[in-house]
Amino acid sequence: MSVLAATLLVATPACAQREDEQLWLQVNTNVTLNDDVRLTLEQIARFSDRQDGLYQTEFGGLLSYRVIKGVELGFGYRKVGAHNGNTGENEDRLRQQVVASFGRVTTRFRVDERFYPIGSGVGVRIRPLVRYNHPLGRKGLALFVSHESFILPNSTNWGQRSGYERMRNLVGLVIPIGQQVSADVGYLNQFRPDRGGARAQMDHALSVQLTINLHTALAPLTHD
């Protein structure tokens, strides 16, 4: 009986959460405007088994200003689209962020303001991220790991609920493709704890991000 009880205790969390296999694609194009200012154009497409294929698209831009060496301030906008099995609404999103690089470690502190067409409230979301890059010999080739948390400080009438909303953990390779182009290819694990009666969910995603740097300026590597 003790063996059976232990087996049930181990199996219960796996049964209680939903799991999904996904594919995340992203293209970032960095355009240098002057020595300290850069414009990043972003395109994202995400696919899901549970949500019948393409379930989310994002298009936007981010203007970054280098205040001192290794520290950048950014402000941007994204249009987020919901497709197929995605039960969310289309979303307009403003973003502010601080990116700081310390050798092999890059940190990003981002704040989103989310606007939904079905309600008047503004959903604020705080997203701290830390990433470590480990060179692997060949110039530009590196192993990376990153962690990002999603913290919601307020609730809205369209459905955002305050609290710790999700985490993303990513491990992969930075692969150079020419002098100004690189690809981040890796495994992304996203976990949403059970909140408000909804079951916990874990997503397993193949993540591919292409970064194109124009006018020779290299941008700090982070993932959405």
Question: Could you give a quick summary of the protein structure above?
Answer:
This protein is mainly beta and 224 residues long. The protein is built from 1 helix and 11 strands; from the N terminus they run αβββββββββββ. Strand 3 (53-68) and strand 4 form a beta hairpin.
Rough outline: globular
Count of extended strands: 11
What order do the helices and strands follow? HEEEEEEEEEEE
* Main structural class: mainly beta
List the strand order in the largest sheet.
1-2-3-4-5-6-7-8-9-10-11
Beta-strand residue fraction: over 45%
Number of helices: 1
Please describe the structure with a list of short key phrases separated by commas or semicolons.
mainly beta, eleven-stranded mixed β-barrel, 64% strand
